Amino acid sequence: MLVLSVLSHIATVDHLKQAGLSLSVLAQFFKLGHQPDITTFATVINAILLQTSSNPNVSNVEDVLKLFHEMLHSRPLPSVVPFNQILTQLVRLKHYSTVVYLNRQMVLTGIAPDVCTLNIIINCFCHLNLIGFSSSLLGQFFKRGLQPDVCTFNTLINGFVLENRVVEALLLFTKMVEAGHFKPIVVTFSTLIKGFCMMGNNTAAMQLLTKMEERGCQPEPNVVAYSTIIHSLLKDTLYVDAMKLFLEMISRGIVADVVTYNSLIHGVCNVGQWKEATMLLNEMLSKGIFPDVPTFNVLVDNLCKEGMVVEAKSVVEIMIQRGAEPNWITYMLTLVIRGISS
């Protein structure tokens, strides 16, 4: 149909300027009783969602909501797929309560949720600190003959961790794995490791890391899992244990990133190991890992605490020369340097 191709063209050629026009043409389809196909829906939705992503102001969100309601009142009803696209975008914009409300409207209109829809709602409840509601949605899967996937359980586990209910997260993890409902991936283990590190339970975090390796988790443990534990060990001033784990990580071929080095530099500075801090900084540079603002701030902060004002000034100068944009912490530290100097 010619109008369909025009609609697709409008959305594709210049989505930032023409998304509103695409929406108005789509609205005419619904009013005339026509049902655009899934390709047309996807084209228009992507145009509007791309505009909303690049400029998430009130009017753009209103466009998304307007599209949702146009779809909701069209006959025949579209499939659940384009609705999921809209809900996903609203989640990215952190409109969690709105998404929960819109989902209720979908169900009342007769649009049955699929696995993707339920995962989206579970995620929203987790962000709203309503993990109890998230957990209850597991029953909806089985009631509707749907199978929860790894995303479902990862989201629930993360929800428990966000509420500092790490033991419950581990219980869910254990129960679901033993029942054969899902095979945990790196993200699953990394989330639990983060939770135990937040509790200060480094032993449990290390055990999970070992379990990842024993289970042959694919992909294998990554820099995030190792860096999380390294940071936690250093926070507890367990410098030797942290360095041992760092060396183990390197021996396994896992490349450290700027987050890993920031934790290490911060940790060694806190125990007065300036030589180690310098070596780590040089190691970063030799591997092509450029220090970021947090790296410089850690160095400047600790140099100031040790009364090494000249060295702190040099670090700030190097930071600016390297093109790293100072943040408010850097400026505060610079004022401290000036105060000490004067």
Automatic annotation (TrEMBL):
Pfam families referenced in this protein's UniProt entry, alphabetically: PPR (PF01535), PPR_2 (PF13041), PPR_3 (PF13812)
Keyword annotations from UniProtKB, A to Z: Repeat
PPR repeats: 149-183, 185-219, 222-256, 257-291, 292-326
PROSITE patterns listed in its UniProt record: PPR
A GO molecular-function annotation: mRNA binding
Family affiliation: Belongs to the PPR family. P subfamily.
Protein name in UniProt: Putative pentatricopeptide
Species this protein is from: Rosa chinensis (China rose)
